Amino acid sequence: MGLDPLDLAVVCCLIASVVLYTKRENILTILRGSDSLDPAIGINTNGSKDLIEIIESNKKDFLILYGSQTGTSEDYCKKFAKELHSKFKELNILCSDFENFDFDEPNTLGNLVGKIKGLVIFMSTYGEGELPDPCVNFENYLNNIIEKDEMTGLPVMIFGLGNSTYEFFNGAAITLKKKLVTEGGAKLLGEVGAGDDSIGSTEEEYVSWKETAFEIIEKEFNLTGGEDAPFEPMYEYVNYEGSEDNVFQGELNKNYLTADKKHLGPFDQSYPFLANVLESKELCDPESGRNCVHMEFDISGSNIKYETGDHLGVIPQNAKEHVSKFLSTLGLNGDEVFDLKLKDPTSTLPFPVPTNIETAVTNYLEITGPVSRQMITQLIQFIPDTEEKVKQRLVEISSSPDVFHKEVIEANFNFTDCLNYVSPTFQWGQYIPWTFLLETIPSLKPRFYSISSSNLKDSDKISVTAMVEVTDAKKLVCGVTTNLLNEINKGPENAASLPLHYNLSGPRGSYKAESYKLPVFVRKSTFRLPKNLDTPVIMIGPGTGVAPFRGFIRDRLISNKEADMMLFYGCRNVHDHLYKEECDKEYIPELKNLKVFTGYSRDPTVPKTYVQKLMLDEKDLIMEALKKGAFVYVCGDAGSMAKQVNDTLVTIISEKQDIKIQDAQEMVKLMKLNGRYHEDVW
Ligand SMILES: Cc1cc2nc3c(=O)[nH]c(=O)nc-3n(C[C@H](O)[C@H](O)[C@H](O)COP(=O)(O)OP(=O)(O)OC[C@H]3O[C@@H](n4cnc5c(N)ncnc54)[C@H](O)[C@@H]3O)c2cc1C
Ligand SMILES: NC(=O)c1ccc[n+]([C@@H]2O[C@H](COP(=O)([O-])OP(=O)(O)OC[C@H]3O[C@@H](n4cnc5c(N)ncnc54)[C@H](OP(=O)(O)O)[C@@H]3O)[C@@H](O)[C@H]2O)c1
Ligand SMILES: Cc1cc2nc3c(=O)[nH]c(=O)nc-3n(C[C@H](O)[C@H](O)[C@H](O)COP(=O)(O)O)c2cc1C
Fold first, then answer.
1. Does ligand 2 lie within 6 Å of residue 479's CB atom?
2. In this structure, which ligand is nearest to the CA of 547?
């Protein structure tokens, strides 16, 4: 009896999975590049990015580096560097981003041996255990340039930031240990820290890792000090008396200070494009009780190129309600204009200056979101003993993670909520310095959205699909960015009914043109349709997870109307069924091989249905498509959906091909390795 193409595929996959299992490391090495030195990698010609030169010319002897995509590792790294410096003054610390240095030359890390006392790294993880985007050169160094034992004896400490709902939990930190310590010969001090933001415990993991790290550093380098030092500002705070024209009012860099300047890019996170909102609409019915905004940005004339499946970064601002509560709780004068001068030339300013306090709070600081226990602990130093009651309460709520969780986190308090909870009448502003706040509160970070347009069909615009986040409307526990998009979408006539309001005119009125503008930038992703236009695609995206699939479908309207596409979509009920109308009227009639399967989870008239159930119902179709080489795409919730969809596919393959679950699991893993199974999950 002959083998049909699928049986053959299964046999091949089984053989391949055995090979993969036994030679996993070799295969990964081949896929990611060899470890041998590549002389063609390039020569470092830019002196200002030369790590050793910067260390030597600034007389630094301790290096702390971070790799960060959305700023969390950066925040932790800077906190660590500052605390280390205040404890051990004799260390001359250089704290910086991997991105600021060239890693093209052989021995870039090896040259550190003997030049610095130690190296501490903070690193987050993305993709399949990879380093964040700004570390692309460093990752290349690790994979292709680093030589065996080049770091012999150099003390290294690593703190990883990750999320345990992803398959490769803290994969980047694990890679660092392998490359720097096991292969590079560096001496690992302490354990590799593993922050986990799936359960919001990064802060606690960091605090306990850091405490051990300080003890180890003190002993290893024979340092004196180690006590908790009082707060000492990193920057010199000066009153500004220069021209108004130079005062930042929320502009993200100096290119925007001159209103009439033409911006040609290239645009990125530090130089975003001010995009006009072309159109926006509400995607949920009023009966749903929720808002989901479809917003289109005009990118014509910007030179911005995107590809279907990329992400759009949106740079937000804080709502006026949150800003005024922050200023009043902390007794700050929002109009006070100030400048900051660097005390250490190798450090960087936290945001553009000169500016005023209200602008800084509105545009540059993450003042909402859960408050950190460490931040509350640090406040205690500023409260005099005469204010015994307040001091005692701060100690009580911050001394144990459990108490803090119960009293502060479970109540959804942000920083100002927490202060008002401790004492609504206390004059916090008399004691807590603004310089402490501006250095300690994390920076306001961009939010990313899966692009829901297609570069083929919508080359001059980019759309996003954003569910408006409201955790507790009464207490204004609302998402920063999605409520900003919601206010723009609702328009001034409906603004009164909204919980939050923003300065939609932007700095110097520069965001108010024909419509509104927002600072945005494109981030490349690997979530791409197959190059072969005839390859079938299976798309699974409940809720806003449907966003990139709208883009995929619109792509095929231009590139191949015969395309074999399946979309598994789930939502609560018909009222939050995103893009139902355009799908029924535009896509299904135009794309004859597009099949859409929808399930409702909160419609009392039908049994609760998730996308996994829809997939099982269509297992024959799925298997048939897989036999034809289909690509599988999953988008949306990383927490549980993505894992369960993976398991459902395993079940389908195992059942339909009559193979063991473990073998079906290996097949799905292989699909991921071969780029036939993609996830865009968050
Ligand atoms: C790669 C990627 C793609 C994404 N694609 C999409 C997409 O297509 N569509 C989409 O809608 N989202 C998407 N997201 C999520 C998006 O980036 C934002 O995280 C989301 O929109 C919330 O942003 P926000 O600023 O409105 O909320 P944030 O201000 O970041 O708040 C987040 C949540 O915390 C709650 N919160 C605020 N303060 C507190 C507190 N003190 N205690 C407890 N909870 C609090 C808020 O109510 C909100 O629910 C994506 C994320 C990533 C990483
Ligand atoms: N990790 C994050 O920070 C973050 C931030 C924003 C959104 N998300 C996730 O991204 C997704 C899209 O957000 P959204 O607000 O648009 O979604 P949503 O409307 O809350 O959910 C969309 C649909 O997915 C269903 N669902 C819930 N758990 C599921 C599971 N394990 N498997 C399959 N379906 C499941 C929901 O059913 P129910 O009726 O049972 O809820 C609903 O029918 C959500 O799943 C959300 O959790 C995550
Ligand atoms: C799109 C995306 C992919 C991620 N992939 C992983 C992963 O594979 N493994 C992991 O441990 N964490 C993963 N994370 C979690 C981040 O590493 C974690 O949130 C970290 O704190 C981010 O730090 P940063 O802001 O410095 O980049 C991912 C987060 C996002 C948004």
1. no
2. 1
Residue nearest to atom 17 of ligand 2 (CA): 543
Indicate the range of 121-130, 376-385, 505-514, 661-670 predicted with least confidence. Answer: 505-514
161 lines ligand 3 (CB under 6 A): yes
List, in sequence order, every residue forming a beta bridge with 314; answer none if it has no partner: 447, 520
Q: Rounded to 5 degrees, what are φ and ψ at 598?
A: -125, 140
State the closest ligand 2 atom to the C-alpha of 545, by its place in the atom list counted from 1. 12
Q: What is the pLDDT of residue 34?
A: 27
Q: To 5 degrees, how large is the angle CA 72–CA 74–CA 78?
A: 125
Q: Is the pLDDT of residue 12 over 90?
A: no
> 537-681: same fold as 33-220?
yes
Residue 651, pLDDT > 90, answer yes
The fold adopted by the segment(s) 537-681 is: Rossmann fold (3.40.50)
- What 3-state class would DSSP assign to 26? helix
> For 320-440, CATH number?
1.20.990.10
- 655 neighbors 562 (Cβ within 8 angstroms): no
Q: What is the pLDDT of residues 347-368, one digit of tens each?
A: 889 999 999 999 999 999 999 9
Ligand having the closest approach to the CA of 411: 1
Cis peptide preceding 607, ω within 30 of 0: no
Q: pLDDT of 43-57, one tens digit each?
A: 222 346 999 999 999
The pair of three-digit structure tokens given for residue 219, joined into one six-digit string: 């002993």
Q: Which amino acid is at 537?
A: V
What is the per-residue pLDDT for 320? 98
Residues 6+ apart with CB under 8 A from 219: none
Q: Does 41 score more than 60 pLDDT?
A: no
| 33-220 CATH fold | Rossmann fold (3.40.50)
- Ligand 2 centre and the CA of 546: distance in Å? 11
Decide: helix, strand or coil at residue 311.
Answer: strand
Residue 147, phi then psi, degrees to nearest 5: -105, 155
Q: pLDDT by residue (tens digit) across 568-611?
A: 999 999 999 999 999 999 999 999 999 999 999 999 999 999 99
State if residue 139 touches ligand 2 by the CB under 6 angstroms criterion: no
Q: Which of 508-512, 558-562, 656-660 has the lowest mean pLDDT?
A: 508-512
Judged against a pLDDT cut of 80, whether residue 513 lies above it is answered with no
**To test the ligand 2 pocket, which listed residue (445, 568, 637) has its Cβ within 8 A of the most ligand atoms?**
637
Q: Which ligand 2 atom is the nearest neighbour of the CA of 639?
A: 1
Instruction: State if residue 368 touches ligand 1 by the CB under 6 angstroms criterion.
Output: yes
Q: What is 254-316+446-523's CATH number, 2.60.34.10, 3.40.50.1100, 2.40.30.10, 2.30.180.10?
A: 2.40.30.10
Distance 381 CA to ligand 2 centre (A): 42
Q: What atom of ligand 1 comes closest to residue 545's alpha carbon?
A: 8
The residue ranges of every structural domain in the chain are 33-220, 254-316+446-523, 320-440, 537-681
User: Is residue 639 within 6 Å of ligand 2 at its C-beta?
Assistant: yes
- 347 touches ligand 1 (CB under 6 Å): no
Strand 631-636 with 537-540, pairing: parallel
Q: Ligand 3 within 6 A of 68 CB?
A: yes
